[in-house]
Amino acid sequence: MSDAAFDDKRVEELATGFALGELKEDELKELYEYLRNEQAEEVAAITWSALASSLDLKMKLSPHFADTIRHRIEHDDDKADDAFAGGILQRLGVRRKQLDPVNTAEQKKHPLPGIFIIIPAILLVVIIWLLLPDNSPFPVVRHVSGGKVFQEGDGLVVDQQVDQRQIAIGKGGKLILEWPTGDQVSVQGPATILVQHKGMSVVNGIVWLQINPDFTLGLPDQHMRSNEASRIAVKVENSVSVVGVESGKLVYGDDDGKDFLEINPGQALWNGQRDFQWHYSDATGIATSPVNLGLDPIAANWSCSFKVALADDDSMLICKGLDERAEEMILNIHPMHIEAEKNNNELWRYNLQGAPRSPRRVTLEGKQGSATVLTITGLDKKIQWHLHAPLDSLEMKGAVALSDLRYRTGPPPIPDNEFVNE
C-alpha cells in the first residue's frame, strides 16, 4: 500500500467511515497504510476534516452529545491542553485562556498544515488501538429478539457494547450478552438487569448464565459468586430470587468472606436462605398408570402441568399432596367438574365448561408462603388449593390418559443450545 497511487476518493470513503465508527478491520488496516505513506499529511487532513464534520453534525442533531463532551473537557484538567481537545473546545464555544499576542517577523497565512504534521501520528495510534482486542470490561450484545430491549431508552442491537446503566427487556424479548472473558447470559423478558465487570445484577426476570470462575451475581436477597465454570438459572420475582445450579458451583454468604455456603449441581436456593433439590422433567408420550413426581417436599417453589383426557363419566384423575399439618389433600378431576377434599370431606367444587371428552390443560403452581394456584381448561378463574408441599402423585381411575407432563422445582431450566456458539 505504501507505494500505491494516492486515491483521494477512497481516502474520503475511509475517512467518513472512520468518523462514523463504521469501518471493518480490513478497512481500518487500509486507512492505517494510507497514513504511513508519502501522502500521510494529506490523508490526515481529509480524515481530520471528516471527524470535524461528524462532530458538528452530532452537536447540531443532539444537544445532549455536545453537553456531554463539553462537561468532560471542562472538568479534565490533565488533558485540556492537547490539540484535539482545543479543536473540540472551539467547536463547542468554550473559550480557553489565550496567551498575549507576540509580534513575529512574518505572520503565517495557513497555520493548519503545521497541525497535520502530528495528526497522522495521532490517527495511527487511534487506529492501532481500534485494531487491538477489545479490553473493555463490559459485555457485547450477541443476540436480541422479540419485545423491546433498551438501555435507558436506547434500543440495543447485535455487536453493540453495553455499560453499567440499567437494561430493560420487554415482555417476549430476549437478550444474550457476552463478556470479553467469555461469560454469557441469556435474559428473558420482562426483565431488568445491570452489568458490570465480570458480573451482573438481576432486578427481576429470568436469566440463564454460562459463566467462568469469579463471576459475581447480585440479587435482591443475596450476592453470589461462581467458584468454577458454571451453568446457572435464575428467576427473580417481587424481590425474591430462586437460583438453580446445573453444573459448577456457587458460593454465597457474608460479605466478609466468612461462613460461605455452596450450591452444587442439582441444588436450588430460594430467597438466599432455603436450599432444596432442583428437579425438572418434561415427559413425552402418554401415561395411563400412576405417576409419582418425586419432588423435594421442602422445595420453596414448584410447578406441574399436563393434559388429561377422560374417556367416560366414571373416569377420574386423582391429584395428591400434603397440607401444613402433613395431612393428605386430594384434588379430583372429573369430565365435567373438579373437587377438592380432605378426610373424605368436600372442600369445594367447580363445574367445567366445554366438551367432557376433550383433553384439558391443568397447571398447578406453588410458592413458599402462598396457596397453590390451579388453572384448568373449562374454568375461567384461578383456584387456590392449600398445599404446603409440592404435588406428590397423580393416580388414575377408569380410562384416563395423561400427556405433555411437565413438573419442576426451582427456576425454569436452561434450554438446549441457549447460548451463542454452544
Structure description:
- The two termini are 40 Å apart.
- The protein folds into 3 domains: 8-101 and 108-131, no CATH class; 140-277, Jelly Rolls, CATH 2.60.120.1440; 283-408, Jelly Rolls (Sandwich), CATH 2.60.120.
- Helix 2 packs antiparallel against helix 7, helix 3 (40-61) packs across helix 4 and helix 4 (63-74) packs across helix 5 (83-92).
- The longest helix has 22 residues, at 40-61.
- 20% of the residues lie in helices and 37% in strands.
- The strands form 3 sheets. It has a 15-stranded mixed beta sheet that branches. Strands 16, 17, 19, 24, 25, 26 and 28 form a 7-stranded antiparallel beta sheet that branches. A 6-stranded antiparallel beta sheet has the order 18-27-20-21-22-23, with no helix packed on it.
- The radius of gyration is 32 Å and the shape is elongated.
- It is an alpha+beta fold and 422 residues long.
Condensed summary:
Helix content is 20%, strand content 37%. With 422 residues, it is an alpha+beta fold. The protein has a 15-stranded mixed sheet that branches.
Features:
422 residues; 7-stranded antiparallel sheet; 20% helix; single chain; 15-stranded mixed sheet
The count of β-strands is 28
Low-confidence stretches: 88-100, 102-117
Total helical elements: 7
Distance N to C terminus:
40 Å
What's the main sheet like? Answer: 15 strands, mixed
* CATH class descriptor name of the largest domain: Mainly Beta
Roughly how much helix do the residues carry, as a percent range? 10-25%
What's the architecture of the largest domain in CATH terms? Sandwich
Characterize the quaternary organization of these chains.
single chain
How many whole angstroms does the radius of gyration measure? 32 Å
Averaging pLDDT over every residue, what do you get? 79
Helix/strand structural class: alpha+beta
Number of domains in the coordinates?
3
